[in-house]
Amino acid sequence: MPRPFVLLVFVLIAAIGCGSFISSTAAYNKPASSTDGKSKKPENNDADRRILYDKMSAVTGIPWYRLAAIDQYERTITIANPKKRERSAPVVSIVVEPPQWAGMLNPDMSDNNPKSIRLFNGIGRDGSGDNRAERNNDFDLLYSVATFIGSYGVQEEDFANGLWNYYQNSRAVQRIRQFAKIYERFDQLNLKDRAFPLPIQSIYSYRSTFGMGRHYGGYRIHEGTDIFARHGVPVRSTCYGVVEIKGWNRYGGWRIGIRDTDNLYHYYAHLSGFQKDLKEGDIVSPGQVIGWVGSSGYGKPGTQGKFPPHLHFGIYRDRGLIEYAFDPYPSLKQWESTDHRKLRKNKKSS
Ligand SMILES: [Zn+2]
């Protein structure tokens, strides 16, 4: 090989190598510093999230609380399935798998070219304005999913329809609509306040009984904590949430189930009655009275007095397709002491 030609090949290789190096580093330059994957900001930063939802809402016309609800639903599923789902973007918790993003028949599963992604019917879009559609970019991710779901229309039913077509899972649709309703009502993301289910000034007692055997209706383990109190002591919502179920259950008697935005189901059983006017779909706040302690259950509707009055309280976590109970005792202890602190503070200031 003549010398000049060897040199030319060398220069060419160097140029190509350098070019691909530049483009690969450019791909990691995110448009906003708040979405930098290496930032040390805590997860679930409500302020960052709200800014992102508001911006995206302005662009897509989808109300912020619906975007928040989609993102929050996916966040709870990731928390419940940490091994199966990897977090893909710094702020948003939505996960889109490569075939869905790039398009089933796309030969390049890491395609980030909006034009070819469209050609292969992928949902990936460029929401950040850098002409790239990246699965790990907050703006691109939220914009892509919002565009898909928003393409069904802007009404509440259209939203449900869009969710169904995106998730093909009625539980996901129900959860996201519930979350959206809660966020819309309170107009904020921070809904972390909790309350002990009974007024802490009332007389009650409880201990950790999770997992103990019980015998009515065949062998079942005890999935909750029994709080013993007199008939008629008020029972309060422990969280911000939506009334998912209210009515009679053979085991639980008059019982009520409330879903919070962490996708936890708070279950209150053996009530003597419900707060009148309260119905399924209603939004509740921590400390709001929902019913009264009783001894209903273990038989047909109306059965009561088969055991001493108490509130059976349970918490279930939704994993996407199944729900499982976990011990509510540590949470109850925590809510109880927070309520005590609040009470002391109120006494001092009055
Ligand atoms: Zn119980």
Order of helices and strands: HHHHHHHHEEEEEEEEEEEEH
Provide the number of structural domains. Answer: 2
**What is the number of beta strands?**
12
Strand residues, percent = 15-25%
CA-based gyration radius: 26 Å
Residue share in helix: 25-40%
Tell me what the structure shows.
- This protein has 350 residues and is an alpha+beta fold.
- It has two domains: 30-186, no CATH class; 204-349, Glucose Permease (Domain IIA).
- It contains nine helices and twelve strands.
- It has helices spanning 3-26, 46-60, 64-80, 98-102, 114-119, 138-150, 156-167, 170-186, 329-349; strands at residues 204-206, 213-214, 220-221, 225-229, 234-236, 241-249, 253-259, 264-274, 283-284, 289-293, 310-318, 323-326.
- The strands form two sheets. Strands 1, 4, 5, 6, 7, 8, 9, 10, 11 and 12 form a ten-stranded antiparallel sheet that branches.
- Strand 7 and strand 8 (264-274) form a beta hairpin.
- The longest helix has 24 residues, at 3-26.
- Mean pLDDT is 88; it is low at 1-42.
- Zinc ion binds at residues 222, 224, 226, 312.
Brief characterization of the structure:
The chain is α+β, with helices and mostly antiparallel strands and 350 residues long. The chain has helices at residues 3-26, 46-60, 64-80, 98-102, 114-119, 138-150, 156-167, 170-186, 329-349, and strands at residues 204-206, 213-214, 220-221, 225-229, 234-236, 241-249, 253-259, 264-274, 283-284, 289-293, 310-318, 323-326.
